[in-house]
TrEMBL record:
<keyword id="KW-0812">Transmembrane</keyword>
<protein>
    <submittedName>
        <fullName>Uu.00g080350.m01.CDS01</fullName>
    </submittedName>
</protein>
<keyword id="KW-1133">Transmembrane helix</keyword>
<feature type="transmembrane region" description="Helical">
    <location>
        <begin position="180"/>
        <end position="200"/>
    </location>
</feature>
<feature type="transmembrane region" description="Helical">
    <location>
        <begin position="82"/>
        <end position="105"/>
    </location>
</feature>
<feature type="transmembrane region" description="Helical">
    <location>
        <begin position="117"/>
        <end position="143"/>
    </location>
</feature>
<keyword id="KW-0472">Membrane</keyword>
<feature type="transmembrane region" description="Helical">
    <location>
        <begin position="38"/>
        <end position="62"/>
    </location>
</feature>
Amino acid sequence: MSFDTKVQVSTSNFEVDSHDQFCQKQQKQVRMADSARVSLTILALLCGLTTLGTSGHTLTVYNATHLASDFNLPLWPEHFDLRPSITLVVGSAIVVLTNMVSLLFSKVQMLRDRTLIHTSLTFVAPFVGFAAVMTSMIFFYAVNASTTVDTLQGWSCRWDYAGMSTKPYFGTLCKESQTALYLSVSLVPLELIVLTIAAYQMVLERKASALIPSRKTSSPALS
């Protein structure tokens, strides 16, 4: 083998090694982004489940203790707006559903192998979750701004100091309503972060997949 041939082979090997290192770096970034997305998705799922549980329980207690207006001592006012609480239930239910689907397609290998669906859900799931929680928060504060009609949270927190030996336990309802609200508010930036990481991961995966064919074509063919 001549000197020129050796130099050419050495240069080709160097280019291949550099390409391999770059591919490995891209794949490592994809794995890191995927791990961060999955971890935050689990956190969003837990927040969504807690919000769904607390807000759903307040509505259950209201339905169980609400009496007709002709009773002498009604526990709840006659004109009452449940829409803010219902909004939290619906928004958190959508967040739970989308995050569960996202985790299933991220962790179950059989589903993850469906590349097109997995890649689409990586971005679509947090987008739907963010849109749902953002819409629920806008609607919640728009309705809750009313000064003429009481809401479940407003009424229960107004009477949270009243000692009760039976349901509805206004103090407990007030804390549950506030917990559901605070978690829903925290879900807005959390889902936005997951959405941003998902978009970044999609970009990295496209770059990594584009490098695979170029790796094959750049391999030296020695005779």
